[in-house]
Each structure stands twice: as C-alpha cells, then as structure tokens.
Amino acid sequence: ALEWYRKAAGQEGLAAQYSLGIPYHHGLGVPKDTTQALKWYREAAAQGHSASQYQLSFLNHEIPGTQQDHSKATAWLLKAALQELTSSQYSVGLLYQKGHGVPKDYTRAMEWFSKASESNHASSQYEIGELFFYGHGVSKDYVEARAWYLKAAGQGHAAAQFSLGTLYHRGLGVPKDTTQALEWYRKAANQDHADAKRQVLSLTEDKACLVMYESSTLSGIFYLACRQDTASGQTIILWEDILKAFKNVVHVREWARILLFLKGIDLRNLDPLRIAAVPDVTLDVVVDGQ
Predict the structure, then answer these.
(1) 227: left (phi over 0), alpha (psi -120 to 50) or beta
(2) What is the CA radius of gyration of the chain?
C-alpha cells in the first residue's frame, strides 16, 4: 500500500500525499520519520488539503531541535479551519481561549467553538459551556452552560458530565439535587475522571479520605485514612490521591501495612485506576531520590 501511495503522491494526488505522511508520522509499517511526514504533509497542504494543514500545525514541534513557531502553527490551523475542518475549528478556538500564539480573545474563541459545534463536536460544546459558566466573553449564565454541557455529556464527554454534576451538586442554574449530581459524577467517574471519582466517594461515604504528612530531612511518613467502597467492601485509595499526597515520591522504602503487591514497587508503575489497601495505611517513602 505504501508503494502505491508513493506512486499516487508523485502524481500530486492530495489524499495519497496525506496518506504517506501518516505512516511516517506515527511509525505505522515504517520507522517513524517526522521529516518525511513533514515533507508529504507540506506537499498536500500547499495544495489546500485541510487535514494535512491541520497535521502540520502540530508536527513541526515534534522535530528535535526545531523551535516552536506559534504563528506558523496558527496559520496552518486557520487554513484548515477556514475549510470547515471541525477539529481545526476547535483547535483555533482553544488558541484564542488560552492565548497561545494569539492574543487571548474569548469572543473569537466562542465564534470558533460555535462553528465546530455545528458539526456536533462534543469538546467544542463543552468549551462553550465553560465560557458561559465562567462568564468569559459572555454574561455568566449557568442555565446556558447547562444546556451546552448536556449536548457534550450526551456524547459521553467526561468533563461535561462532571460539570453537570457540579451544577446539581451546588445548585447552580438548577435546584440543588444530590441524586442528579451523583448520577452525573458516576458517569464521569466511569471514564476515569479523577475529580468525579472523588466526588462519588464524598457523596456516598461519611468519612473523607484524609492525607496527613509528617516531614523529615530524608523521608516522610504519609498516613492515608481512606473510606470503604460499599460495592467491594474494601478500603480504597484513589491513584490520583496517591499522586497528590506523594508528589515527588520515588518508591516505597520499607514494608508497611499495605497489600503485598505494593511492596518495593515504584509507585509510578502502578496501574492508574485504584489501589485497594488495608485501613490506616502507613508508607515510609523515599522523597527527592534520597
């Protein structure tokens, strides 16, 4: 297939030139070669191929020793966005929302997110909800934010599901409803949304997961008194809570009252879902590589 694409690309076939860039970009069937990917994307992009223009806006930054050129990346994104490429419209919206390579402009961000949302782009719908939630470029409007979050959440967008949970949890734009909040938090938590998992635990258990830290010169003792999961009957610690508590921990230095599979294991290599542990877990950990 690669040889066929080369022949077609040599005849200035735009789709073939783009298709040649993909395997070199991602190392599919050939050694990864960003220079070759850049070459083929450029040839197609110069002839107006929107997907190649979109890829070019990011690929330049992947080449070792290449300085990031935000203005060039923005130019390629705009070219693709003006050809109605939804992902590019969304990306341009993010640039204006964050002020990356362009002056921060929430009004322009809203324009581009709105264009992408016409194609039912979930992330753009979510970002419009965020603009209304925080009142960025528009009047703060929780009801309008909820309407946009619902569009994105209906497509399985975890952050939008979490945001809906927040609205119901805090009674923003809707009557306060813990049951509805928990329903949306659970949807997001099922997609491994860290904050949603914490909220589910907070709303379903009486005791919060407490983290206390006693510092010393070389190491610290972390005491994690965590709640019990009613479904499994196990006391649990969320992976995200471990990251937050341990911060710069390198590994578990000594055996502690914790499940056997944790003994001597580098915390960074653990499965990032959840860790079951006995109550009142104590870990003596190495900090800062000491």
Answers:
(1) beta
(2) 24
Nearest-5° Cα angle at 247, 244 to 252: 110
Instruction: Give me 31's structure tokens.
Output: 């050694």
CATH code for the domain in which residue 70 is found: 1.25.40.10
Q: From residue 198, how far is each of 22, 57, 194, 206, 208 by CA, in Å?
A: 39, 36, 6, 13, 9
The answer on 125 and 57 residing in a single domain is: yes
Condensed to tens digits (0 to 9), the pLDDT of residues 256-288 reads 333 333 334 444 444 433 343 433 344 444 444
- Cα–Cα distance between 150 and 154 in angstroms, integer? 6
- The per-residue pLDDT for 65 is 46
Residue 135 lies in a domain: yes
For 43-61, how does the pLDDT look when each residue is reduced to its tens digit (9 = 90+)?
676 776 667 666 766 666 5
In a domain, 204, yes or no: no
| Structural domain ending residue among the three candidates 175, 199, 223 | 199
pLDDT tens for each residue of 107-116: 999 999 999 9
- Number of domains forming the structure of the chain: 2
Pairing state of beta strands 281-287 and 249-252? antiparallel
Residues 81, 17 share a domain = yes
pLDDT digit string, tens, across residues 202-248: 787 533 333 333 333 223 333 343 444 444 444 445 555 555 555 44
3-state secondary structure of 155: coil
**Domain extent for 167:** 2-199
Strands (E), 22-95: none
Distance CA 190, CA 196 (A): 9
Q: Check whether residue 268 and residue 179 sit in a common domain.
A: no
How high is the pLDDT of residue 120? 96
